[in-house]
Glutaredoxin (Sphingorhabdus arenilitoris), 111 residues
Amino acid sequence: MSNPAHEKIEALVKANDVVLFMKGTPLFPQCGFSSRAIAILDHLGLKYESVDVLQDMEIRQGIKEYSDWPTIPQLYVKGEFLGGSDIMMEMYEAGELHELAAEKGLAKAEE
């Protein structure tokens, strides 16, 4: 049984090295957690794709099932689910996100 939302999510996750499913957009995050996630990615200077779950109810529900994670934002790196903003913050503060970015050869944002 195919799930159109899961197929859409999988296509996004596979097509982009870094994908953040969030509430709002990078310029106008609609919650503090999404805002923190964007701040971390911007501080790392990474190129990323963002998906505003508020614009698509199927994606908003589907992403929670896809990752088996109840909250948004959700970060995917090279097709792998990393976690939400708390996990991102912990990894960032421990230097693990920097290491991961270098290890995975993630592209830097255009200056």
